[in-house]
Amino acid sequence: MLRRPLGVAPARALSSIGPLLALLAACAFFAARSDRFLTGGNLSLVLQQVMVVGVLAIGQTLVILTAGVDLACGAIMALGGIVMTTLAARLGVPVPLAIAAGMGVTTLFGVAHGLLITSLRLPPFIVTLGTLNIAFALTQLHSRGQTVTGIPAALGALGDTFQLGGTRIVYGAVLMLVLYGVAWFGLRETAAGRHVHAVGGAPEAARLAGIHTRALLIGVYALAGLLYGVAALLSVARTGVGDPNAGQTDNLDAITAVVLGGTSLFGGRGSVLGSLVGALIVGVFRNGLTLMGVSSVYQILVTGVLVILAVATDQLTREGRR
């Protein structure tokens, strides 16, 4: 008689609704500890703080659903931002062309990831670890290690705000939410989206079922690269400069958001909306602890504990499916 691991059912339920419950519990806790937390201005600030990592997490979710991982997303984003700002601010290239060039560079990195992983059968971890260093070096060389200032106003337009019920909302945060809606629809309601889950869950079975796994993986990494370009534009809009040192920890923050959101690191299972919740959990904790005057070291500590709990829950759920 087969024995099921103890605690599997609760772990499975926790994996589905746990991220949202954790977000609500965190909001309730910080609301009780600070009168400023639940104000419209502060919640708008949380959205603004997570919009860059939030968009990176969409691309990271696509990659992780295929049982991959992308360690280079933050470095590629920084390179895209430097390309946009140097072209627009130093060379006088029209803003739309500068944006297209930056996004083109980030997309090319994604295509390279897909080709290396599918053609040479290299592990995604190794490929993206290598391109992380390549992108960082190219960023420093292209910018000469200098922050790019004096960017045209149009390049930072997504950092502008509009009034909604007495609260200023940044356009970039709205764009992030729209992208999540599009990604959710694409993954849930289209054949290509279902193929992404299938390739991550059982790649050989997906291939035998007629899914072109190589083309799909290249497409997933290319789309992730394009999203890193959008994140680069948001980063430039938020800071108002091209920063060659931007995004150095954003790769880990994006992976943290995806894991906290309930997407399995083993691929095939998860929801992109969960990644949004995961990004908000990290943002709420950092914002709330800052309001309480807690050192940033404890914010990192709490984030690490949450990641371990999320991965442990994922592992229990996976064991229960065997």
From TrEMBL:
<feature type="transmembrane region" description="Helical">
    <location>
        <begin position="169"/>
        <end position="187"/>
    </location>
</feature>
<protein>
    <submittedName>
        <fullName>ABC transporter permease</fullName>
    </submittedName>
</protein>
<keyword id="KW-0812">Transmembrane</keyword>
<dbReference type="InterPro" id="IPR001851">
    <property type="entry name" value="ABC_transp_permease"/>
</dbReference>
<keyword id="KW-1133">Transmembrane helix</keyword>
<feature type="transmembrane region" description="Helical">
    <location>
        <begin position="95"/>
        <end position="117"/>
    </location>
</feature>
<keyword id="KW-0813">Transport</keyword>
<keyword id="KW-0997">Cell inner membrane</keyword>
<feature type="transmembrane region" description="Helical">
    <location>
        <begin position="289"/>
        <end position="312"/>
    </location>
</feature>
<dbReference type="Pfam" id="PF02653">
    <property type="entry name" value="BPD_transp_2"/>
</dbReference>
<keyword id="KW-1003">Cell membrane</keyword>
<dbReference type="GO" id="GO:0022857">
    <property type="term" value="F:transmembrane transporter activity"/>
</dbReference>
<feature type="transmembrane region" description="Helical">
    <location>
        <begin position="257"/>
        <end position="282"/>
    </location>
</feature>
<dbReference type="GO" id="GO:0005886">
    <property type="term" value="C:plasma membrane"/>
</dbReference>
<keyword id="KW-0472">Membrane</keyword>
<feature type="transmembrane region" description="Helical">
    <location>
        <begin position="50"/>
        <end position="83"/>
    </location>
</feature>
<feature type="transmembrane region" description="Helical">
    <location>
        <begin position="215"/>
        <end position="237"/>
    </location>
</feature>
